[in-house]
Design a protein that fits this description.
Blueprint: E1 2-4, E2 16-21, H1 27-39, E3 42-47, H2 67-76, E4 81-83, H3 87-90, H4 109-112, H5 116-131, E5 135-139, H6 143-155, E6 161-165, H7 185-191, H8 193-200, E7 210-217, E8 223-230, E9 233-240
Parallel strand pairs: 1-4, 2-3, 2-5, 3-4, 5-6
Antiparallel strand pairs: 7-8, 8-9
Helix pairs in contact: 5-6
């Protein structure tokens, strides 16, 4: 596996599968790497904690980072190129162009995290332009992100297929997330109310937690999505109500 820092080093031949990430890899990421490995000649994973999708007061500075561990896991999962750019490589001095998916980016997560999806859409379009993948891989846990990027790709005629893989969960049902590492044992026990409420379609199971939303969303497929706050941590999850996320 090659670790590269600049767009100039991204030269490669063959059909490319791209897995955009912010690092802190877990089994959910590894499932995306393996899927990309099975379907493409070249697998590129990006490792970039994107400051543009964090609002003031969110956990940009404390977001877990361990590049050496991530590189080892990516290589073991069959990644050919790990693209880990500096912020200046993605947003050079004078950068002023942003992508906004208006309606889809303003509900649910977008309502509670204004500007979040502008940052997501912009960085993903930039990665698509730099890497030129045939396919890009995302997890169903980020259902709204998938919907936003699918809309962007259709609207702007971006020649990439968005591939979505099912949510990977721990044995206790909690959806895997890089932020789970920050949960205390007591907070993790409280967090289990989230998948249980979604599975039961019962918001009352979240009583005692700060709930940002618990709503059906007409994505493809349609989902019941929720976000809760536990202390200073914020977790999202969803269940598919119809269709097949694969």
């Amino acid at each position: 596996m090659r670790l590269v820092r600049t767009a100039a080093e991204l030269e490669h031949e063959g059909e490319i599968g791209l897995v955009p990430t912010m690092g802190a890899f877990h089994e959910g990421h590894l499932s995306l790497f393996r899927a990309a490995r099975a379907e493409n000649e070249v697998v590129v994973a990006s490792l970039f904690v994107n400051p543009a999708q964090f609002a003031e007061g969110e956990d940009l500075e404390s977001y877990p980072r361990d590049e050496q561990r991530d590189a080892r896991l990516a290589e073991e999962a069959g990644v050919d190129v790990l693209f880990a750019p500096a912020v200046e490589e993605i947003y050079p001095p004078g950068f002023q162009t942003w992508v906004e998916v208006e309606r889809l980016g303003a509900i649910l997560e977008g309502k509670h995290r204004p500007g979040h999806f502008r940052g997501v859409a912009t960085v993903c379009l930039k990665l698509f332009n730099l890497v030129r993948p045939r396919r890009a891989y995302f997890g169903q846990k980020d259902a709204q992100q998938v919907a936003v990027l699918g809309q962007m790709v259709r609207d702007l005629a971006v020649p990439v297929e968005i591939r979505v893989l099912p949510i990977v969960r721990d044995d206790d049902g909690l959806a895997l997330s890089s932020r789970n590492a920050h949960l205390s044992p007591e907070e993790r026990e409280a967090a289990l109310s989230l998948p249980r409420a979604l599975e039961a379609r019962d918001r009352s199971l979240l009583d005692g937690l700060e709930v940002d939303y618990f709503e059906e969303a007409d994505f493809e497929p349609r989902v019941l999505a929720a976000a809760v706050r536990i202390g200073k941590k914020r977790l999202i999850d969803n269940v598919v109500l119809e269709g097949d996320p694969t």
